[in-house]
Amino acid sequence: MAAQKRTPKGQGGLQDLTPLVRSDVNVLISAQAISTYGSFITRAALPLLAIIGLGINAAEAAALAAVDLIAGAVVSQFAGVWIDRLPRKPVLIGTDLLRAILLGTIPLAAALFGEVTLPHLIAVSALCGMCATTFDIAERSYFAGLVNSSALRAVLARTLGIRGAAEFFGFGSAGLLVGAFGGPAAIGIDALTYVASAVLIGFLRVAEPKLPPASARASFRRELSDGLKKTWSVAIMRPLLISTFVIGLYFGLFRSSYLLFVTNGLGLGPEAIGLVIATGGIAAFLGGVLTERISNLLGVGRAISVSLAIVGFGLILVPLAPGATVLGFTMLIGHQLLSDGFETVWEANQAAIRGRVLPAAFQGRANAANDGVGILGRLLGIIVGGVIGSSVAGSGVALFVGGAASIAVGIFVAASRLGRIQSISQIPASGARRRA
Fold it and tell me: Secondary structure of 159-211 in the HEC alphabet?
């Protein structure tokens, strides 16, 4: 029996899940929370290790920020096809364990040789980027096959909210751990969290939906090209793919410019940076808690467009911050609260729409297409950020451009047909969803 049929059809929400499905949802969310806690430590520790410990310049910082995305872009579409052909649970476990091994080489190298080199960091970042992209595609596809589309947004919002809480503790710990023990030791903690995540995922009990038989599959090459083509062919998905690209651009500009701006421009140390960024986790958690209320109050289309605009406004606050003053810290924290909170609302809604309008057997390729578009946006943002962000003033301009782009795409979505949709139930489900 497909997992779709295990979920009762109610009004939508976690209360509609059977106890067994709810248990699996909680297990997967818990596993992600543990690994996310560690990954946010590494997300802060790895560039700080390179910037402070190795003294890299803006171009090298941009290369370090880009390499995992390039690797993710290379693997994403292939991963999408295989995720639609293979059971997803082993993929989740395997990518967790592989990341644990890769990250473990950093503290090992520091202990054996007394230093970590930039090529080593780049190689680990690239391979972990491949694993992270594959894991994220498999996880969203697993959820889409596990729960009915009526409950999918609530499940995704809860997942993103718990991830936000993990971000709070991860980033909050990162600066303190780097300051106290150094970057390699902090990254070693991340390696252990992936082991714990893999162990938890091993307890998932609900059978995944049956995979299409080999005789029903097209060639690998045909399925590879179908991902973006078929996703784009669904009219309601086009503004979402465009917004995904722009949000990718936003995060690319942020990733290549933010740390340089707050470190060199505002004079913040690793502890202060970690604490500021950690507040975004609180906002993401609240965004996950409030996604259903905000979406029902505004309507799903308006919730998406308003969220995109608020995300952009939040980032614009960063280059306007006057320095390491009370007002400056308030504006930096304001960015985290606004952008992270409403990015959660946007992400949960657009992923739920994708889960509704595309069949469960196509979710791997659909999520891969979405990730591929987002990664391309991030790469463009990192390149632009690296080119114009070689000075403090340039980093500020890059951050302002990212915020303005998000506001613009919010206005675009509001003017599209998607912007007028009140609820996900108004959107026609795929044939597979209607039969579920």
Answer: HHHHHHHHHHHHHHHHHHHHHHHCHHHHHHHHHHHHHHHHHHHCCCCCCCCCC
Q: Count other C-beta atoms under 10 Å from residue 301's C-beta.
A: 25
Per-residue pLDDT of the chain (436 residues; tens, 9 = 90+): 334 444 333 345 566 677 788 888 888 888 888 877 777 777 777 777 777 767 776 667 767 767 877 888 888 888 888 888 888 889 999 999 999 999 999 989 888 887 788 888 888 888 988 998 899 888 888 887 777 766 888 888 888 888 777 777 776 676 677 666 667 877 888 888 899 999 999 988 877 777 666 666 777 777 877 778 888 888 889 999 999 999 999 988 888 788 878 887 788 877 777 778 778 878 888 988 899 999 999 999 999 999 999 999 999 999 888 877 888 888 999 999 999 899 999 999 998 898 888 887 788 888 888 888 988 898 888 888 878 766 666 788 889 999 999 999 999 999 999 998 988 888 877 654 433 3
| Alpha-carbon gap, residue 434 to 423, rounded angstroms | 16
Pairwise CA distance, residues 260 & 267, whole Å: 10
Residues 6+ apart with CB under 8 A from 167: 36, 40, 278, 280, 281, 284, 340
H or E stretch covering 433: helix 431-435
Task: Find out whether 77 and 67 touch, Cβ atoms under 8 Å.
Answer: no
User: What's CA 311's distance to the chain center, in Å?
Assistant: 15
The secondary structure of residue 428, as a DSSP letter, is P
CA distance 284 to 99: 24
Q: pTM for this structure?
A: 0.76
Distances (CA, A) of 329 to 265, 317, 321: 13, 10, 8
Residues 342 and 355: their CA atoms lie apart, in Å, by 20
For residue 117, the 8-state DSSP code is: -
CA pair distance 289, 111, nearest whole angstrom: 42
278 φ, ψ (degrees, to nearest 5): -60, -30
Residue ranges of domains in the chain, CATH in brackets = 10-207+219-435 (1.20.1250.20)
3-state secondary structure of 398: helix
Q: What is the DSSP letter of 318?
A: T
CB 107 within 8 Å of CB 187:
yes
Q: Where are the beta strands (DSSP E) in 318-414?
A: none
Q: What is the CA radius of gyration of the chain?
A: 21
- Measuring CA to CA, which residue among 234, 232, 203, 241 is closest to residue 20? 203
